[in-house]
Amino acid sequence: MKNFILQAVTPENHIEAVSNLLTDDTPTRVIISTAFMSESGLSSIEEAMQKVADKTEMYVGIRNGITTAQALEKALAIGCKLYAVDTGSRTRIFHPKMYFSVGKDAGQIIIGSANLTLGGLNSNIEASLFEALDLADSKDAGLVEQITERFDAMLSDYPKHVFEVTSQAQIDDLLVAGRVIDEGDITRPSAVGASKDRDRDDIPTMAFRTKLLRRAVARKAKAAKPPAPKTDSGKPIKVSSGGLEFVWESSPLTRRDLDIPIAKGTHATGSMLWKKGNSEIDQQTYFRSDVFDKLDWRADPKLAGKELAEATFQIVIRGVDYGLHELTVTNDTRTDTASYKQRQPMSAVRWGEARPLIARDDLLERSMRLYRDPDDEGVFVIDID
Fold first, then answer.
1. How confident is the model at residue 250 (pLDDT cuts 50, 70, 90)?
2. Where in the chain is CATH 3.30.870.10?
3. Third-level CATH fold of 2-183
4. Is the pTM of this model over 0.90?
5. DSSP characters for 170-213?
């Protein structure tokens, strides 16, 4: 039996397909090969993997800027035999995506584009071919033999590049060496291009048929980071890594958030309230006390009990960088208002010159993420995707 999986544009997803492959029969050997692996991706099939962990070998690419220390930790915790594949170069990476199980009389294989990440197994458009294998058929038996022999050969042919990972200390060493990344480190949202004209890019979100799964907030890996290199003067060199601190994620954006009201009697305000969204925060205090606390706040000359501050926001929308914008954030310090007593948010951002970028129907139901630059107290990044 063969089946073509086209994830996201059909109701099929790789979480279900891979989980079925692992549990439908009683395999004697399981091989999983993936270029990239994240903790959230592995967690999505963890229940199925636990049932065959003692029979499972994982071959995972590293030195690619995507595979994480937390994912390797998770694989060890599940009990799999874990092999890292390091080509020694970032321009030549280990890239095969395969999920394979074989038993006494039969086998199954999924091979295609799906990495062991949440995007690869659920959110992205991915294509794979599933095939059931009958070991009584000489062609299927030959294919099974090829698969197992060739993965075994990698271990013997490339012992420096394909090696077993067995301990937390080993994972820590890979992290410190930069060969895997820490899911707790947030980098600047990737912008594939730059523009100042939003009219050239108004395509709405593609309606997928797989349910969007939320990623868990990543915890910090345990390994200590290496000290920053120093100059002859003894002062550390500031590494231009683009590292950011993730501070907030919205719920799906509404017309009120984007300042595009259509209901009768409602008017554009030119601002957005900083609400709880998808973050576990106190929306009345978090933004003033934690996110924007280092700004130069002053009393609002027009509204008693309110305060203002300016900050620089880089705005990235669907992977396009629309540059830096000086925006005003506000906070209501009053505790005797109806809004405060109803636990409504007290802080907001005024869109000002950036409103034409934000007030667009094609951003409805998307997510906004807010990042802070730890090296510059007045610089933030808004990423909408």
1. very high
2. 2-183
3. Endonuclease; Chain A (3.30.870)
4. no
5. HHHHHHHTTSSB-TTPEEPPP-SEE-S-GGG--PPPP--SSPPP
